[in-house]
Design goal:
With about 130 residues, the protein is mostly helical. Helices cover about 70% and strands about 0% of the residues. Helix 1 (about 1-15) crosses helix 2.
């Protein structure tokens, strides 16, 4: 599980060393507050702690980056279609580069869903976004 936690943190922070430190801090936080855990999805709970720890770290260490708004014009790729990207050999590398250009709050949703395989309900719990079925 700790590999998944540091992997999620790495996607948000874009630094392996920082991600490992933040994931370790998140695990320590989770242990401190374990008594207050009232059941539910432990994976979603741990990922939520990692997420919150990442954003606390970003606000402290990179305040400008955490406040960047998504700009559709900047992130648009008119020549590439989902089909052409899927067929291309370097598709994975392109996806990684594209994800790294997104601000953390947009990147996290894609990482949780597509790379971590979280359900929408889990993502809602992790990100504290209301979930409507």
């Amino acid at each position: 599980m700790s590999t998944r936690l540091s992997n999620f943190a790495r996607w948000l922070l874009r630094s392996r060393a920082d991600a490992e430190d933040v994931a370790q801090e998140a695990l320590l936080r989770a242990c401190r507050f374990f008594r207050g855990f009232q059941g539910g999805d432990a994976r979603a709970g741990l990922l939520q702690v990692v997420r919150n720890t990442c954003y606390s770290w970003l606000e402290k260490n990179r305040p400008r980056e955490s406040m960047v708004e998504f700009d559709e014009e900047l992130h648009r790729q008119p020549v590439a279609t989902p089909e052409s990207i899927a067929i291309a050999v370097e598709g994975r590398e392109r996806l990684t580069r594209a994800l790294e250009t997104l601000p953390p709050r947009y990147r996290e949703l894609l990482v949780l869903r597509e790379l971590e395989g979280c359900s929408y309900k889990e993502i809602a719990a992790i990100t504290s976004i209301p979930w409507v079925r």
